[in-house]
């Protein structure tokens, strides 16, 4: 099996991290900002130095292309994103882009030609920190989102995506979409599973199903000092019981089921007022669509029972639904064969976070390679990875892509 | 037993409610505002018409005095406050002031002279809606709070109490405090107990003990999609269990024990982030100091156990402590004898809310008379009372005060 140049890749990662470097060791390159532009230009320079050609589509997705021997073949694509959270880490997204570049550099070193062309994609606004929603570059590329809708999105200062694309010079003309033979994205796990299991490579089988619910609990606001307990309709005591029922639900659907209550707000809250109205969010996740449908029904049944018992009114509205996204069997097999051949410690894993690859999977055969991040920490300036893991993950990417793109003898 | 003129009192209540009347039937007279000044001036005019003399102390407390036959006797005081919440009701405070005035008017009608002088007090800033803390007029009068401290308090617009007193003409010169024979305050219950028990008169035995705690729960923020349930340290799931334990605590100390969690805030909350840090408040109440001390210890023990079990860090800090305030046995007996003599439906009750009488009780013999408010509702424009209850409560006040002040034969 081929091996990449781990030191070169690490040096590139560290050089990219200097652009928008933050005081506490992270990076800040908000989508289509001057720093994001600078990061893209560094990548573009490296790509040109590696003999690749560049193109940009109307939503600013940047592609570096290495030709194949077959002029009719669709490209095998790698990539991820270079934009970051405001207090982002050095590896989220950047790793997938520079791993793709390292694969090309390595093939150049080895003078290996592939039958199918290779492309390294830099997707626009994966993070969603400046422009909402997240991942709209890959969404527009794959036809999941309208170009016009995305161009009209404005940031907190009122600057539209269209304006930011023109300001940075990234309003390109390459046609959106087009034939893609396959897409392979390397990424840090952004969770603790690989580290906890002492594995280096996660062979990602797909993205899990997600349901976001909005829950509203209505009781009766009253004075904390003058209202006897039996006469109260306390929305928060009710919500506390509901939230524990939601925690228990995860146990009932273990280990695949995940439940989170991330936001809770009490209306007109005051220290000596019994909460009369509050809202909280529910985030449900599971590998299978059928299971998440059951979880959704269970949430509704259990919360309704608690509300009835406590004489509260509960309203549950769906906020967002994302079905499970299984990855392509052949692409996953290519990753599995690469890691088997390399003999690295590995496991199958489901992607818990959103990635451009989740969009690509609805458009073309797709797979991902995960490597651990220290302590599972991401979206944080302290985000860290081990250089050895960076190297092994890129070895897997190299061999999987090469197998899929076809080495010309 | 003597009876007051219910129609005259009701007409006065309705006339006062016109000052600062709100669109939805309530009153807005923020402390030392122009509307509060207008309310005080109406009361002052009525007091002068009833033959009383006026005085104002340096914190703006306004006193209307009816002389007694004994020039050496300290006054028997009645009263409450005329300021309101921003969306306040027509009876909270106003009832106690105008009931006191009605007692004097009634004695005038009956040409009854008392041995001790009578005074009707209008305490400054009972509500605390404009200036913090609440009830500082009675606090300064009784020496619980420094005059200088109170004068320096500023509202949200930066206007100090001293400036507001001068602007309204209520920076008076009557010495603070002085001898008070007894203090009787009539007030709406601001809770549902009397209505729920179909009683008209609450013979208030004192104020309950209050403890306010600040609880901070620290876990580990993490991604809702990538973190397996067993690896989570979810501050909100922990807090939900703690909050239910606090609810159970009230049951363990029933019926006197009350527990409320009124505020809860998750730091950097987001729908798909496991809460890593949050804070909530605890309001504990009980009639007895020894019991509230036990409740406090139980909160600490139960929350610490939950935190340990969940690998969370919990910190509990006292925010404010107010010991139980038993009222004067003789004054309470005077109220009890009046209501017994009148034969009105009554019960003993503990004051759940704060009142000027709670401050006065540390300064002079004190008692209160409660009447029901519809649905227990207060601090609300929809606050309402039944005219018949207003009348009966004032009958009780009249006979209790007359007994205490001594009728000159």
UniProtKB/TrEMBL annotation, chains A, B:
Residue span(s) of domain Peptidase M20 dimerisation: 210-309
Stored InterPro entries: Amidase_Cbmase, Bact_exopeptidase_dim_dom, Peptidase_M20, Peptidase_M20_dimer
Question: GO molecular function terms here?
Answer: hydrolase activity, acting on carbon-nitrogen (but not peptide) bonds, in linear amidines; metal ion binding; N-carbamoyl-L-amino-acid hydrolase activity
> What's the Enzyme Commission number for this chain?
3.5.1.87
- What does the entry list as the binding residues for Zn(2+) 2? 92, 127, 379
Cofactor(s) for this protein? Zn(2+)
Q: Which domain of life is it from?
A: Bacteria
Provide the cofactor note recorded for this chain's UniProt entry.
Binds 2 Zn(2+) ions per subunit.
What the entry lists under Gene3D superfamilies is as follows: 3.30.70.360, Zn peptidases
Q: Which UniProt keywords apply?
A: Hydrolase, Metal-binding, Zinc
Locate the residues binding Zn(2+) 1.
Answer: 81, 92, 187
Q: Which PANTHER family match?
A: ALLANTOATE AMIDOHYDROLASE, ALLANTOATE DEIMINASE-RELATED
Cross-referenced NCBIfam families: hydantase, PRK09290.1-3, PRK09290.1-5, PRK12891.1, PRK12893.1-4
Q: Which family does it belong to?
A: Belongs to the peptidase M20 family.
Name of the molecule in the record: N-carbamoyl-L-amino acid hydrolase AmaB
Source organism per UniProt: Pseudomonas chlororaphis
The gene behind this protein is amaB_2
């Amino acid at each position: 099996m081929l091996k990449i140049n781990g030191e070169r890749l690490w040096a590139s990662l560290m050089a990219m991290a200097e652009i928008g470097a933050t005081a506490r060791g992270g990076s800040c390159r908000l989508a289509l900002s001057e720093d994001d532009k600078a990061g893209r230009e560094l990548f573009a320079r490296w790509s040109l130095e590696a003999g690749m050609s560049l193109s940009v589509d109307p939503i600013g997705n940047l592609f570096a292309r290495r030709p194949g021997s077959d002029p009719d073949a669709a490209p095998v694509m790698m990539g991820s994103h270079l934009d970051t959270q405001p207090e982002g880490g050095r590896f989220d997204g950047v790793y997938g882009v520079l791993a793709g570049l390292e694969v090309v550099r390595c093939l150049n070193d080895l003078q290996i030609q592939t039958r199918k062309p290779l492309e390294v994609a830099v997707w626009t606004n994966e993070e969603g920190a400046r422009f909402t929603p997240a991942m709209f570059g890959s969404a527009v590329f794959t036809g999941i989102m309208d170009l016009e809708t995305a161009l009209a999105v404005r940031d907190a200062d009122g600057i539209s995506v269209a304006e930011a694309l023109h300001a940075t010079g990234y309003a390109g003309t390459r046609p959106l979409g087009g034939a893609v033979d396959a897409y392979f994205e390397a990424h840090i796990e952004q969770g603790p599973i690989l580290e906890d299991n002492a594995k280096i490579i996660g062979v990602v089988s797909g993205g899990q199903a997600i349901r976001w619910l909005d829950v509203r609990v209505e009781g009766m606001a009253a004075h904390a000092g003058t209202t006897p307990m039996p006469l109260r309709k306390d929305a928060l005591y009710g919500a506390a019981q509901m939230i524990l029922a939601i925690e228990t639900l995860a146990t009932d659907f273990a280990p695949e089921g995940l439940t989170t209550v991330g936001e809770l707000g009490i209306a007109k809250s005051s220290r000596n007022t019994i909460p009369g109205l509050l809202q909280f969010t529910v985030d449900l996740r599971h590998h299978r669509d059928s299971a998440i449908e059951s979880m959704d029904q269970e949430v509704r049944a259990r919360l309704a029972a608690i509300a009835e018992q406590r004489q509260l009114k509960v309203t549950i509205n769906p906020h967002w639904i994302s079905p499970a996204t299984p990855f392509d069997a052949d692409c996953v097999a290519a990753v599995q064969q690469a890691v088997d051949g390399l003999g690295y410690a590995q496991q199958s894993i489901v992607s818990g976070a959103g990635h451009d690859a989740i969009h690509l999977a609805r458009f073309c055969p797709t797979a991902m390679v995960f490597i651990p991040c220290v302590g599972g920490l991401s979206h944080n300036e302290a985000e860290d990875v081990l250089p050895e893991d960076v190297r092994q993950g890129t070895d897997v990417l190299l061999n999987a892509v090469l197998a899929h793109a076809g080495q010309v003898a």
